[in-house]
Automatic annotation (TrEMBL):
<dbReference type="InterPro" id="IPR020825">
    <property type="entry name" value="Phe-tRNA_synthase-like_B3/B4"/>
</dbReference>
<dbReference type="Pfam" id="PF03483">
    <property type="entry name" value="B3_4"/>
</dbReference>
<protein>
    <recommendedName>
        <fullName>B3/B4 tRNA-binding domain-containing protein</fullName>
    </recommendedName>
</protein>
<dbReference type="GO" id="GO:0003723">
    <property type="term" value="F:RNA binding"/>
</dbReference>
<feature type="domain" description="B3/B4 tRNA-binding">
    <location>
        <begin position="59"/>
        <end position="211"/>
    </location>
</feature>
<dbReference type="GO" id="GO:0004826">
    <property type="term" value="F:phenylalanine-tRNA ligase activity"/>
</dbReference>
<dbReference type="InterPro" id="IPR005146">
    <property type="entry name" value="B3/B4_tRNA-bd"/>
</dbReference>
């Protein structure tokens, strides 16, 4: 799996990884422990009142305003939305083991993570690019929408992700998923090293589900 980045000049970059041989049908105690530890760590380290001023959150908020033209108080960065939930005393949502592991990594390193079922992706080469007028995106939990000049992660005729906050139902991870593409989304002001650490941490979590890396973590 290869990702080609056509919009790096906008401060967009990713770390990505492929994990295979995953058993996503059941939670294992060690994974549950790691997820709970990430939640407790976030609650110790961060405050709901000052979260918006954290330099990493600030970088994503600035990207929303300046590059995407989105008000981040109305459409919050994905990791900020998760952290706000946790800091209000609520648990992380339970979706399935792989997605929950991704959410744990997201709040631990304060970056958004996309997870995609490789069996549902129609190409081995993906591009981060601007959408073309008339392309249709089918979001998880929403209605299909027509895109016009938005930054997306896409294969041939298939939109996986609106960068960096919304994933497609077409490639979502389910209990039957065995092979996962992990994409950690970066913006200007966030170090590449943070994305790499996130990817390797998530690799460790997915190993608890039998996951095996299918190569090195890469940057694009």
């Amino acid at each position: 799996m290869e990702i080609i980045n056509e919009v790096r000049n906008l401060g967009v970059f990713v770390a990505y990884d492929v994990i295979v041989n995953i058993d996503n049908t059941k939670y294992v105690p060690k994974l549950v422990e790691e997820i709970e530890a990430a939640v407790e760590e976030a609650r110790r380290a961060l405050s709901l009142d000052t979260l918006k001023d954290h330099p990493i959150i600030r970088a994503y908020r600035d990207f929303y305003w300046r590059v995407l033209g989105i008000d981040p108080t109305k459409q919050r960065p994905a990791q900020e939305a998760l952290l706000r939930r946790v800091l209000r005393g609520e648990p992380l949502p339970r979706i399935n083991p792989v997605v929950d592991a991704g959410n744990a990594a997201s709040i631990k390193f304060i970056v958004p993570i996309g997870l995609y079922d490789i069996a549902k992706i129609n190409s081995k080469t993906l591009r981060i690019r601007f959408s073309k007028k008339g392309e249709i995106f089918r979001p998880i939990g929403g209605s299909p929408m027509e895109l016009d000049n938005q930054i997306v992660l896409a294969s041939d005729g298939q939109i996986l992700h609106i960068y960096p906050y919304r994933d497609s139902v077409d490639t979502k991870v389910e209990n039957s998923t065995r092979e996962v593409l992990v994409v950690v989304a970066g913006v200007a002001g966030v170090e590449e090293e943070r994305l790499l650490k996130t990817a390797y941490y998530l690799r460790d979590l997915l190993s608890l589900l039998g996951g095996v890396p299918a190569g090195e973590v890469k940057l694009a």
